[in-house]
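Q: Phosphate transporter, please. Structure only.
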Amino acid sequence: MSTQPNDNDHLETLDRDLERFSHLETGTQYVARPMVGLGIALVFIVLAGITAGIFYGDHPSNLIVVAAAGFGAYMAINIGANDVANNMGPAVGANALTMGGAILIAAIFESAGALLAGGDVVSTISKGIIDPAGIQNAQIFIWAMMAALISSALWVNLATYVGAPVSTTHSVVGGVMGAGIAAAGFAAVNWPTMGKIAASWVISPVLGGAIAAAFLAFIKIKIIYQDDKIAAARRWVPVLVAIMAAAFTSYLALKGLKRIIKIDMPTALTIGATAGLITYFVTKPLIRKQSEGLENRNKSLKVLFGIPLVFSAALLSFAHGANDVANAVGPLAAIVHASEFGDFAAKVSIPTWVMVIGAFGISFGLFLFGPKLIRMVGSQITKLNPMRAYCVALSAAITVIVASWLGLPVSSTHIAVGGVFGVGFYREWDAERRLRKSAIKRPAATRIAPEERRRRKLVRRSHFMTIIAAWVITVPAAAMMSAVIFLILNAIVN
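A: Structure for Phosphate transporter:
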């Protein structure tokens, strides 16, 4: 019998080899995608360092500023990867925006908010957490700010990796506190201020969740549960859009335009009320025209909330860029100031090139690494549609206004994610209430068992516990990391 391989054997071997090659190619592409993102991020960090070198080429502290610029760029990338998801997640989860559209809008409006309306002055000790008098000299201060910058960036990076949206402002707060304690002891910390920040961990998500749930209840009672849903929508959607316009105008007047003009709370509310009134009269005929020919069912209502939701996501991004970028690049601005003038002040100006690093870093981070957290916030905590996502966005603006009025430091991350939890838990409560109501009319055999009810929870408890745990440990974890990094840097130098 001949043992020579025939043509069929060759073909089978070739098929197997091609299949192996196909698997290898697929695997290579899978590995290459994150590597490409990391490569682009690394190039941006290097370019940030080169930019700092150009501006401070002849300065004795050139290397320190270059290193700080690199870490500032790294921090900005992490903000884009983590923090921006809170603004865009609900709109993407509700299918009002595609992932690409969300990233494009967020990149434009975050950058515009940072560059056009970002604070031109930032507190070097992050809202009065550390007493500057306790810091011995400018060199110690520089290493403390460097440690705060590195630790907060590392913590946000870790949180993004595990899929937990955390407050970047709280990360910086923890970093500054830890480095301050390592440099000057516990007495240097302003504990009443830290107490307010700790209280905001609870106040921000609870207030955001309660407001979002209240608006969802209003929409369900006044529109969704009505016999003629379209007629109800024509009556109430213009009112809801007007409330959104009033809230966002007030929000932007308070938080987003600080660099251009200083506006107090009564003035901001007056401007917001005027914008809301104008929006109502403009929106009413548009909603009536848009609702013509729609079927009398819940699916039709989603069309009416889609455009307002897109606008709210864009405005949230603008306000976030204006409000949070300064906090992120604050330690970098403080290092630049201390290196240039040899001293440190309670407040310093942010150089334009530092703000540009912050703005572009956020855009790169969002584009390269943002989709993971956008999906988490938008669809993995609870199922969102345009009505629910609209309630989340509206609650974010209103909660910030209420918190500013009460003088409470709040986190935009905690508010937005709290809003998602709020609509999810309200839906659970409402579904359970309606189930109990209908069960009274049912025979006992058709009622749903308690075990099955627990299985039908509308908020994923695993994500809920992960996010809450990340929130609680953000400040202490960033503080401990910062203290260790400060001690290492100080030991290397000395």
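A: Brief note, in case it's useful. Residues 127 and 211 are 27 Å apart (CA to CA).
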